[in-house]
Amino acid sequence: MRQLLLLRHAKSSWDDPSLPDHARPLNARGKRAAVAMAGVMHGLGLSPDIVLVSSARRTLQTLEALAPLPDSPMVEPMDDLYRPPGSACWRRCARRRRRPAACC
What we know:
two-stranded parallel sheet, 38% helix, 4 helices
């Protein structure tokens, strides 16, 4: 049976307010938590086939802490799939009276 695993990035750092959100790294607590989550996932035998991940620094650092993942899953960056509200895709879907997730 297929399973869907949802994992949020670990705790990020707000030490440098000049960094854009996309560039925020994990803080020390987040790094420890990501390593702990890796242990839990390995202990439970959780082995994803596909990993969808943002290119944000904190999400990539979280993914790195989970490595090595069993069976070398395919890793797909999600940023190419994301269509922000107000984008041409959203406007086109609104004209068609459809949700962006089903339209874009």
